[in-house]
Amino acid sequence: MLDESHARIDRRRAPREHRGPGRAPTPERVRTLRPILISLGALLTVALLALTLGRFDVPFGHVVQILLGTDPGGAFGGEDIPPTEHNVVLLVRMPRVLLAALVGGGLALGGAALQAIFRNPLVSPDIIGVSAGASFGGALALLLGLGPVMLVGGSFACGLLALVLVFLITSGRGGTPVLMLVLGGVVTGSFFSALVALVTYLADPFTTLPAIVFWLLGSIAGATPGQVLVAVGPILLGTVVVLALRWRINVLSLGDDDAAALGVRPRRLRWVVLASVALIVAGAVAVSGVISWVGLVIPHLARMWVGPDNRVLLPVSVLLGGALLIVVDTVARSLTAGEIPLGVLTALIGAPVFFVLLRRHRDRIWDSA
Amino acid sequence: MPDVAPVLLELREAGFGYPGQPAVFRNVTLQVAAGSVTAVLGPNGSGKTTLVRCAAGLLPVQQGSVRRREAVGFVPQARGTSFAYRAFDMVLMGRARHVQLFRSPGAGDRAAALFAMERVGIAALRDRSFPTLSGGEQQLVLIARAVAAETNLLILDEPSTGLDLKNQVRVLRLLRELAADGIGMLLSTHDPDHALYLADTVVLLHPGEAQQGPAAELLTETSLSALYGVRVSAVDYLDSGAEATRAAVPAPRRTIVTHYDDSPAARHGEGAP
């Protein structure tokens, strides 16, 4: 009897020698790591270039020296690199590059994760109504003249409030969960958009109205270190949670029934992902206004390159999203003497790019591998 | 086996209906013990799929009770998914129960997934994109996914639908092997022959009522003719095996023959009065 049961187990389970952890890089691992490393390389290259480029010229060699801390100008007060270059690179450009990477990466990740759990490639982070909520919070803070910290705090709080409203709308009985979520997001989003319109209507056309409009257009130019600190926490937290759940998101993207049959609790997992994306989006809007298209175009590009496996797609989306927003922000501050709002540029670039993608892949838009 | 096999799944007077509509099925009582196979048969719309989904816990029953003592491996009917995962990645997702929340599957999980694919005979499909597979191949991938989950209770919704003869045989043999390994199984099927080959117990879903009993007793000419409303014959014969493996004692077998014409004379009887 004992022998027999052993034989049973052996037939059903994979043989032991198959199970040992492989030390050599397996084809699977290469398949996963290569696109991630390429994207990381792209992000770092773009970041370095962004520190060099701009209306104030800093030679590339100087940037490298400043970053490595080997320049005499920093520690020993030498004459090779003027202190102005030092300040431009470390105090002006570096915070913007970091913030652009964080916001762009977060938005692209949020878009990719939502596309997976809504099982729809046309979803962007805006769909759950959080960005509209956060816009209202920020606009209200500007209207009331509450100062930069309340601007970030208010938009963050209202972004999360929007998520709570979506949750309350969808938590009733009946209806397909995903469809109810989309409807809840649309309802909440239009409600808060109306409130934003109300705030802009009430704003003083000479003082607060321009401030609100420029903030809504999206920019990371005015970001102060204090604002950045408030926003960095939620964006990083949301990003880490979503990335850690990347394989579970694969299972969830099969649909609720399949996920449940495989032992995953779809509703609970979906809300964890939604809350994490809401943290990212609320944090991003709080610090940089509404930046559209990054969360739609980057996940698409990434999926066409690496396929739909979120174990690869999500990290690649983060890195490429960060790289894209660094590029856009560099263009925004270099092209003209004034700053072009980021949200305007991302839409100007995003819409045609998306159009080309749709034309080229219109037959494979669902299962673009 | 001396001791009684443990009951893994039990439905007691279970029923399900959408509000304001007649019950999809009702009064179904069945048990699935370790190593035993129960097949659900019934015409289209009789509630087979609803019944297996209730048994798997994907739908709540409204009357009676469903008790599962084990995690379930569930094989749905194949349908396209929105994202083009590789067949291997689909099978790998069967490991979700064995992978911690914030982890991705490791080498052991990959080995189990590959082993399941080899067992189902689809290792060659490994790198193919799931939506580009034929319906039958998708069905095999979903079966491999449930095998990779390594659960002791399998619930399958028409596992042989859409498969060619060779793959039907392959899947039926695999399921019988799994049952011999001690896995309990509940499956729905349209083919009485498959139920005769696999099942110990069958449930016949008539509109509004269910009939259950041992497969050999229930899968007869009268009951099947009544169930589907067509004329069938049960043919008992002795199977002495293939040329190479001719058995000393031929095994008694039964197969169900469907009559497509109303009367035997209908086709050849053009000249009859």
UniProtKB/TrEMBL annotation, chain A:
Task: Supply the alphabetized keyword list.
Answer: Cell membrane, Membrane, Transmembrane, Transmembrane helix, Transport
Q: Where in the cell is it found?
A: Cell membrane
SUPFAM superfamilies with a match to the protein in the record? ABC transporter involved in vitamin B12 uptake, BtuC (SSF81345)
Q: Which GO terms describe its molecular function?
A: transmembrane transporter activity
Spell out the Pfam families in the cross-references.
Answer: FecCD
Task: Report how it sits in the membrane.
Answer: Multi-pass membrane protein
- Record has NAD as a keyword: no
Region of interest called Disordered, as start-end residue ranges on this chain: 1-27
User: Which cellular component appears as one GO term in the record?
Assistant: plasma membrane
Q: Which residues cross the membrane?
A: 36-54, 97-118, 127-146, 152-171, 178-199, 228-249, 269-298, 310-328, 340-358
Q: Name one GO biological process term.
A: siderophore-iron import into cell
**Family per similarity comment:** Belongs to the binding-protein-dependent transport system permease family. FecCD subfamily.
The protein, known as? Iron ABC transporter permease
